[in-house]
Structure prediction request, 94 residues.
Amino acid sequence: MVNIYNPNDATVGVSLRVSISTPDTQERSNSENPNIGRFRALGVDCDDIRRLSNDQSSFISGLLVIESGADVRVVATYTTGGSIDVERILPRFQ
Prediction:
């Protein structure tokens, strides 16, 4: 699960897409451009990633690409068996 939080005083638009790590060069990714209300969050789960990648496999290797013109906070939560790991993703400004 990836959570995207908007800490801003206004609604923020984000762009979401999945970049698949495969040996072929065929583009299979859709993109979505949801808006996140002020002080609200958006969750992206495995089903969302399958939909964005056009791949219904049980295992997908790749990246979830999140772009926004405003500051957003991104947290990834990894779960396996009985354990959980939470990682804050630092922004990359271009």
In short: The two ends are 25 Å apart (CA to CA). The chain has a mean pLDDT of 90. Helices lie at 46-53. Strands lie at 2-5, 12-20, 31-32, 35-36, 41-44, 62-68, 73-80, 83-89.
